[in-house]
């Protein structure tokens, strides 16, 4: 499905009020400040001018030229008529306006769909927060802008999407796109799954859903997308009460969670339990496509190594049995106090050379698929020294890093991030990142 005109548009028209603080004004500001290089046309029947971030725009009274996308933030009752009026000039419309099926106004939503289909216009929304095409410098939403990267975020809830974008910025996630699809009156999560599976700038797809309207279409989309990209799903409305809340929120059919869970498992989607896990999964798939189940743990502190081991084994990962050759090579240079069993404990005074050589030796072991490197630096060894050891080490296997904690490791974490290496804040979160990578081995 070709939806490039939404996420890589060459022109956009925005309908609504352009007084400061109004939704249409904020979307115009986001598009202008985000560096959009196409044509931007604000539209309101009253006309006039609006200044945004030092740029002046003429507010046109009506749309009088062909435009890729219309973003509509006007009273709901006026939306179907507007689509009828401008439908011959646009390819797609993002309907921000609320007041449709989510409040029981089914007839108005049906009218919107009918008008759009008559004109051949694709609709995102209504009752949504808009869209981003980050690589196209298109920020067609009132949510916080994000940095360019590989994660496409599809959210049924606009508020969740906005919070997720803000958290993603804090976590250092790079996004390819964002779409809040609201009531899904036309385009649905299934359409976006298919589109982002083929999008050249998307490495992984994250999906927040409360329920879907067409289960067969959703399953077909999962079957299509999961062999191509990791699909990370956060499903809300699992409990009976949550299911009722989801249905009242978006008007979707939340359905039995067990049915969803079976579909996720069957087609290789990666289900996470909470927002923190969604971003951890996104981070690991930004670095690696997949990994085997046999991991080696390298640490300078026994406790975190044990925590990582417990978590890994509880998830069905295997603590790799190191070869005699590897054990011999480690014993030749490590102090006698160090443990060369897996987990490998380099003890508290482990420095650049100890970490670097250990990573390189263990990375060559045929029994090891991936490495989890933990660092809890003492005050006399800067965390950036250990970060540099990880960066410099010659190892062609996936490495997941857990630096703890806070100010003590801030400089090291920053140095790793500059080289595209993400930090996982606890040993358990790092181990779970390997679990998600291992799931892709089956796809």
TrEMBL record:
Top-rank taxon: Archaea
Signal peptide: none
Catalytic activity annotation: acetate + ATP + CoA = acetyl-CoA + ADP + phosphate
Molecular-function GO terms, alphabetical: acetate-CoA ligase (ADP-forming) activity; ATP binding
EC number of the protein: 6.2.1.13
Keywords from the named record: ATP-binding, Ligase, Nucleotide-binding
Limits of the CoA-binding domain: 6-100
Pfam families in UniProt: CoA_binding_2, Ligase_CoA_2, Succ_CoA_lig
Identification of the protein by name: acetate--CoA ligase (ADP-forming)
Organism: Thermococcus barophilus (strain DSM 11836 / MP)
